[in-house]
Amino acid sequence: MPEASRVDSFCLSDFDQSIGNHLENAVELSGNPVNNSLKVSSQTISPGPVHLGTSDRLPISVDRSSFMYLEDRLSLLAQKVQSTNHIIIPSGDTENQEGSAMADASPRTDISTDADTDDKNQRFDGSQSLAAVASDSSDRSKDKTDQKTLRRLAQNREAARKSRLRKKFLQGSRSGYGNSSFVSSGRMQNPAYVQQLESSRLKLTQLEQELQRARQQGIFISSSGDQAHSMSGNGAMQFDVEYARWLEEQNRQINELRAAVNSHASDTELRMIIDGILAHYDDIFRLKGVAAKADVFHLLSGMWKTPAERCFLWLGGFRSSELLKLLVNQLEPLTEQQLVGITNLQQSSQQAEDALSQGMEALQQSLAETLSSGSLGSSGSSGNVANYMGQMAMAMGKLGTLEGFIRQADNLRQQTLQQMHRILTTRQSARALLAIHDYFSRLRALSSLWLARPRD
Amino acid sequence: MDRVKDLASKKAAVIFTKSSCCMCHSITQLFYELGASPAVHELDNDPYGRQMEWALRSLGCNPSVPAVFIGGKFVGSSKDVISLHVDGSLKQLLIDAKAIWF
Question: B102 lies in a domain?
Answer without folding.
Answer: no
